[in-house]
Target: protein-serine/threonine phosphatase
Amino acid sequence: MPSHVDLDRQIEHLMQCKPLAEAEVKALCEQARAVLVEEWNVQPVKCPVTVCGDIHGQFHDLVELFRIGGNAPDTNYLFMGDYV
Model:
């Protein structure tokens, strides 16, 4: 795991709109994954998955999502936000 100095340097680099090296991005993603996977509210998701935004209880929007993406359980869906 990189030190706080490395992370501070990477943040400063990004704040100057300079890209990080691919290896640094991959390492940061892996470190974030290691932290997030331990959170109680993070659910495992089987890929591939179709991520859907809020449908706010709109049944016709749900039907349209299934029409475009395929029916469950043939297609995995992750609904973000309100679906009441």
Remarks:
- The helical segments are 4-15, 22-36, 59-69.
- The mean pLDDT is 89.
- Residues 29 and 35 are 10 Å apart (CA to CA).
- DSSP finds three helices and two strands in the chain.
